[in-house]
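Quick one, C-alpha cells below. Sequence please?
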C-alpha cells in the first residue's frame, strides 16, 4: 500500500511528525532505531532520498547527544577511525556518484536492508570481530555501511552488528554507535547537498521535525524505566521485519 501527501500541507506535517515521534520513541527505549523507523515508514509515500534529507537534523542532534556521553571519545576515535573513514568515503562518494536514492529499486533495497537487520536481530546473531581481525574488518565494514547508506539512507547495517561484536562495554558501545551514526549522518547530508537533494527548504522541514523526534525520545526514555527493553526490542524488530518485507514487495503489488 502506498499513498501520497501534499508537502507542507497540514496532513503532511501531521503524518510526518507522527513518524518522527514514533522513531524518537523507539530510540528512547532501545537506544537506536531513529533512522530505521523514520526512513522505513516515510518510504511508504516518498523516495528514500527525501526521507533521508528529512532525517538529517533530528539524527545529527540526537546522535551528537549520544556521542557526548561516556567520556571515551578519544580512545574510540583512535580505535574506530579507519572504520569511520570508510563510512564517510563510501557514503559521500556513493551518493555523489550514484545520485540520491530514489523510489523504485532504492525502495526495494531499503526493504531488503531492513529485513536483514531485523532477521539478524531476532536471531540474536553475535559474531566476534576483535583481535587482529579488527584492523582489516573495520575499514571494510565502514565501506559496506557507507554503500548501504548511499543506496537506502539507512546506516545500521553492517555497522551495528560489527560494533556489537567488538565486545565493548555498555557505555562504550552507546558512544561508539553515536560516533558511527553521527559520521554517517554528516556524510549523508554532505552527499545529499552536493546531489541537490538537501535544499534550504528541505533543511527547514528537517529542522521542524526535530521537536517531534525529541518529544518521542523523551517519552521513550520514560517508558524504558517501566518496560522490559528486551521485549520491546523484539517487538520493534518484528515490526521492522514486516515493514521491510512490505517495501521489498511493493513493486509486485502495483
Amino acid at each position: 500500500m502506498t499513498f501520497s501527501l501534499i508537502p507542507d500541507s497540514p496532513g503532511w506535517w501531521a503524518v510526518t511528525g507522527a513518524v518522527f515521534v514514533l522513531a524518537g520513541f523507539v530510540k528512547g527505549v532501545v537506544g537506536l532505531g531513529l533512522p530505521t523507523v523514520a526512513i522505513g515508514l516515510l518510504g511508504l509515500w516518498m523516495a528514500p532520498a527525501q526521507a533521508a534529507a528529512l532525517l538529517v537534523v533530528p539524527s545529527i542532534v540526537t546522535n551528537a547527544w549520544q556521542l557526548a556521553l561516556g567520556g571515551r571519545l578519544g580512545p574510540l576515535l583512535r580505535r574506530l577511525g579507519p572504520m569511520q573513514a570508510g563510512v564517510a568515503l563510501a557514503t559521500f562518494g556513493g551518493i555523489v556518484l550514484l545520485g540520491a536514492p530514489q523510489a523504485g529499486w532504492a525502495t526495494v533495497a531499503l526493504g531488503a536492508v531492513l529485513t536483514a537487520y531485523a532477521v539478524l536481530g531476532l536471531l540474536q546473531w553475535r559474531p566476534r570481530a576483535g583481535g587482529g581481525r579488527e584492523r582489516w574488518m573495520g575499514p571494510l565494514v565502514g565501506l559496506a555501511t557507507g554503500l548501504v547508506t548511499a543506496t537506502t539512507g539507512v546506516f545500521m547495517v553492517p555497522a551495528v552488528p560489527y560494533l556489537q561484536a567488538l565486545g565493548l562495554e555498555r557505555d562504550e558501545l552507546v558512544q561508539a554507535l553515536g560516533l558511527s551514526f553521527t559520521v554517517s549522518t554528516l556524510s549523508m547530508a554532505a552527499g545529499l547537498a552536493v546531489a541537490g537533494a538537501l535544499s534550504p527548504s528541505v533543511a527547514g522541514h528537517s529542522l521542524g521535525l526535530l521537536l517531534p523526534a525529541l518529544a518521542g525520545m523523551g517519552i521513550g526514555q520514560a517508558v524504558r524505566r517501566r518496560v522490559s527493553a528486551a521485549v520491546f526490542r523484539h517487538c520493534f524488530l518484528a515490526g521492522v521485519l514486516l515493514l521491510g518485507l512490505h517495501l521489498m514487495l511493493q513493486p509486485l503489488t502495483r
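The chain has one domain: 10-253. The chain has a mean pLDDT of 87.
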